[in-house]
Amino acid sequence: MRAGIAAQALRAHRWAFVGPASTQTVAATVLTATLTTALALRDHPAAEISEAMVAFAAIAGYLTVLLVGITMNAAIAQQSGDIALLRAVGATPGRIRRAVAVEAAAIALPAGVVGHLLGLAAGREWLGALAAHGLAPADVRFAVVPWLLAPVLGVLVVTSVLGALVAAIRPARARPAVALADVATRRPRFTAVRVGLGLALVAAGVTLSVLIADRAAEAADDAAFFVMLSLCVGVGLLGPVVLRAAIAVTRPLTGLAGTGRLAADNVAVLSRALSGALVPLVLAVAFAAVKVAAHTTATHVTGRAGPAAEVWLDAAGTGVYCLFAAVAAVNTLATVVVGRRRDLATLRLAGATRGRVLAVVICEAGIVTGTALALATAVAGVTLVPIVHSGLGTWVPYLPPAAWVTGILAAAAVVAAGTVLPAALSTRGRPVEALA
């Protein structure tokens, strides 16, 4: 029966699972490319680049665990109403959890295979690019490793299933009437465990940043990623609280406009669903800011630019990871918008024009973008200060204005791609069709 429930859920919510599937494909691509490159350089005398590839593969693994789990969590959260109905007709919590696990595995396996094949091609190109920039010897050869598919699929399946099970905890255990009421009202619930864990992770990130500020530069660089990861996950858990605080700050600016008021109210109601997108969005912006500012601060303080090959390697790796996180952010936001298509149709039936509906979504995107940029700036600052202090002896990072503008535009583009674009596509037809 659980396989039947899973199959029906996949058919009924197929658009909600597009996001997790594409994120899993990107994850498998990045994992395969970095692992195959690391294995190709494993026994080569160029130890530094080999160690860098191992570090890249490790970071890719951490990001996969985090981002795949988040997108699958968002997809399963869209089924809360269906889960409540299943509970009402007698389905046990255990049966719900098993069905959800089957759904997650059914999405992860084909996405992992496709991503692995793409990753083999990407790994070959990546190795060639390293050789072209003098970072790898010209005679190094790319080799396909048959057994690598197994760990890649294992990581995707485990993270997808865990993310799905976490999303199903509350609706599977709640009483059907309570669950249906929560779905109808979309009340964001703030549990003490969630808030406590979020505060603990933020405190851990800040504490680790303070501890490594006086360590050797290499040790500070190695620990910086974990500072950032702890802070990003922490602010994600605190996302509903943070978004509501952002609304309280921006409401005076939108108080005179009906569109702005409606957008603020929508973000408040959807704060828990939208908080999942804050983690990859803040991670992408903060990661890019840290990497760029590390080089620009060094040039600003010393007056010398870093070696071109090292700068290229950092920029290429940063681009890959930021793209990975941006894909997860777009997919998470798009999953939320897809779940709102009936709400958007209802607005149009109530008299709102398509342009007015899209204006509301644009205002919502502005609130999310502003919140994410503020959080990313704080995370990047906490992460970057010990790096520049231990390596350059300064407490003040330097980031050129052009980099700030680029970061703001990139974040706005990512949020717009995940909110405004799917909203525009879902409102093209007649609203009655969406309700049907």
From TrEMBL:
Chain ranges of the ABC3 transporter permease C-terminal domain: 55-173, 323-425
Membrane topology value: Multi-pass membrane protein
Intracellular or extracellular location(s): Cell membrane
A Pfam family assignment: FtsX
Main subcellular localisation: membrane
Matching InterPro entries: ABC3_permease_C, Membrane_comp_ABC_pdt
UniProt superkingdom: Bacteria
Keyword Transmembrane: yes
Protein name as catalogued: ABC3 transporter permease C-terminal domain-containing protein
Organism: Asanoa siamensis
